[in-house]
Specification:
Elements (H helix, E strand, L loop, with lengths): L2 E6 L22 H12 L3 E6 H7 L4 H15 L3 E5 L5 H17 L5 E5 L1 H5 L1 H8 L3 E3 L6 H6 L10 E2 L28 H5 L5 E2 L2 E2 L2 E4 L2 E2 L17 E2 L2 H15 L3 E4 L8 H14 L6 E5 L7 H9 L2 E9 L3 H6 L6 H14 L3 E7 L6 H14 L3 E6 L7 H8 L10 H5 L13 H14 L5 H8 L6
Helix pairs in contact: 3-4, 9-10, 10-11, 14-17
Amino acid sequence: MSTILLVQPWNYHDEGIKSHNLYQSWHNGPLSLLQLATQLRKSGHKVSILDMRRDLIYFKGKIHNCILKLSKTIKEIQPDIIGVSFYSVHFLETKRIVLTIKKICRESKMAPLLIGGGIHCSIEPDDSLEKLGFTAVFLGEADIGFVEIANGHRLEKVNGVYFPGQKVKTTGQEIEDLDQLEFPDWGLCDYKFYAHPSYGRLKVQKTSSIDIMMGRGCYYSCNFCAYSALSKPRYHSTQYLIEQLKFMQSNYDINCVYFIDSSIGSRQKLLVDFCEKLIRTGLSKSIEWLANIRVNQINENLIKLMWKAGCRFLFYGFESGSQRILDRMNKKTTVEQNIKAAELHNKHRFPYNASIIFGYPGETESDIRKTFKLLKRTKPPSIGINCYVPLPGSSDYTELKKKGQIDIDDPQEWRRIGEVNPERIYADISEFKYLELYEQAKTLANVVIPNEINELWQPLDRL
């Protein structure tokens, strides 16, 4: 049996926020770490999760306290393996975590395997090894490979493991039948921190919501997205999803879930079957759900069925009102489909969010004006304006890196391109005009939380 510590880095935006109330912000939970920890425990290993994102908020922005807790935890459990899963935007935080781990291990005469994981390690494994100092990094999914490491397999024999001196890169073995996975044990973290507040609304009470996935991977390959680079599409069965909802409801007292898949509409038969089963079992009356879906995957019958099945909010990537830009993005949707989806929601008073990518490479003022026209015409109840960044793992990232527009030797670069922000301009617009248009875009973004939207829209019962 191995003793394992899995670590989630903190969010640097929360550093020094002294008055941060523990339950006032919405954060996605560490679902991938929970899934991995559950698999490891199923195989007989002792697993702990150190959620530094939650801890920094709990300690009111004091990083020092988070580092002390990390040190204390390592000394107490003396792990054989320490895994750190992170996004590119957390590169600097991860570096500090790794330095702390090595210092404590030297002082305590421990020598655990130190393994990095997450999309940054998959996309930039050499950079992760050289600049962060992991023993090894994991490329791709770790459900099978990490368990093999914990079981004592040599690193060079495990698919997906990459370490200094290794010449051949492999990807982690994927689980073909996702129903083989145990339900993620949210009890391994402070799930109540993630459950409040949440999107959605049950009668007149705020919901208690945590994340769930219908499947993995994506059939589409939008140039700005890294999701399709992670794994091939696979899905749980309807029965698995229904039983998981019952498990989450009874064990964690939740009444809402958020499907974090890039789109739940890619397998229409599964989605319809899932909705019908929710209605037949009566779960549609006690559990609300929210999800991401594409505009080319929705129709009137489906939107009615989803509402009846308990869906109360949908997130769409409209991205642009310019067909030229949608085509450059390889979005495989049309402006007309954006309009049709909006009209369906507006007709039935079904709350939704329209997400826009602002400043895409090659975008002109004319293209942006077309987006403004789209938003003014459709009037979504919630609009997200996201300044374009080339997310690591996306096709855009690879292309811009080749052109020398991304400097991976600068650690600060990961913060600049790891999340949406207006710091760098990629569109064919001057900086002055870009900022002027961005201010106009923000005025169009009717930032209303979905709870308030539900109260304002009052969807029709005939749905």
